[in-house]
Design goal:
Protein name: Chaoptin
Number of helices: 0
Shape: globular
Strand content: 25-35%
Strand order of the largest sheet: 2-4-6-7-8
Subcellular location: Membrane
Family: Belongs to the RLP family.
Structural class: mainly beta
Pfam families: LRR_8 (PF13855)
Largest sheet: 5 strands, mixed
Keywords: Glycoprotein, Leucine-rich repeat, Membrane, Receptor, Repeat, Transmembrane, Transmembrane helix
């Protein structure tokens, strides 16, 4: 078990970051938003807590994003690529999307096993 170090943001040329199913805990460092070439970010099936940093909206090249099956809460960032991700990207978390243009409201509750 470990955390995602804030220094991860220094990997500015990285295109793919897949840390799924690694038993990672803690929060998502906002420094990930400095990885402006990132196209694929998968942090699913870990023990992450907190919310998705609003600064992730700066990741304009993202075509795949998943934080499913973590212990997240709060709002899903809006705008940019976040308007294109499927609901399955956020399954199993207490996240809500308040997209003004689409008048939609999603709630994903953590399932208890």
């Amino acid at each position: 078990m470990g955390t995602i170090p804030p220094e991860v943001g220094r990997w500015k040329q990285l295109h793919v970051l897949d840390l799924s199913r690694n038993n990672i805990s803690g929060t998502m460092p906002s420094s990930i938003s400095e990885m402006r070439n990132l196209e694929y970010l998968d942090l699913s099936s870990n023990d992450l807590t907190g919310s998705i940093p609003k600064s992730f909206e700066k990741l304009t090249f993202l075509s795949k994003f998943s934080v499913a099956y973590n212990h997240l809460h709060g709002e899903i960032p809006t705008g940019g690529q976040f308007d294109t991700f499927l609901a399955s990207s956020f399954e199993g978390a207490q996240l809500r999307s308040l997209q003004r243009n689409r008048f939609s409201l999603w709630f994903f509750q953590c399932s208890e096993a």
